[in-house]
Amino acid sequence: MKISNNIIFVSVLCTSFSLYADNQCDTVSCSEHFTQGPYIGIDIGFGWLDMSDFQVNKGVSSNKSNDGVTRSLNIGYLFPINDQFSIGPEIGYETFFNSPDIKFNRGNNSASIKVEDALYFPIYAVTQYHLTNDVYLFTKLGAAYVRQKTSVSSNAINIAPLSDTQTSNDWRFAGSIGIGYALQDYLGLSIHYTYIDGDNSSDILTSNETQPYRFQNVGMGVTFSF
């Protein structure tokens, strides 16, 4: 099921790019559609979790795979303040295609910590500023509901005071910055950087509480404005 969802998501993204054919936008229509009204965005990118500072015992090697390809969907509405500046609310969803993990080895013994699910549901206040009729900058500030399910498996190595499976659910600060370009009346491209606060691996291992890992992402996507 997860593989099928990934294939569908990539297919939708590729189809979106193929729409760049007829009807290049003029200066008026692009400015109107990308400064006001509802929009939907589909993004794909590269993300990573802050699992890089695990302290391992002497003789224990580690193999970190705490990053991977991400996908996201966002829906929002812009209210124009003037011809160049707009603000509005946005909600979204973001996750990994893969499951980030860290593996430990000592002789014939091994252990692993895997983030089986990493789900992010941000709520943003968006500001958008048009440099030209086609090019715009945007910032997003708000909070994200984070759900991370982590599993620990080991045949001998005592690597962390964690149970076999733990789930963290928490609200964390979230922010994003980027730049976009209006291709057509209703279609635009954008690139962005996203940060969702969390703890690093050392903080999590020394805490008795279940906390989410810090998440960062760079990506690009398409935006449909209505």
From TrEMBL:
Pfam family for this entry, one: OMP_b-brl
Signal peptide location: 1-21
Domain Outer membrane protein beta-barrel: 111-226
Source taxon at top rank: Bacteria
Keywords carried by this UniProt record: Signal
Protein name listed in UniProt: Outer membrane protein beta-barrel domain-containing protein
Organism: Paraphotobacterium marinum
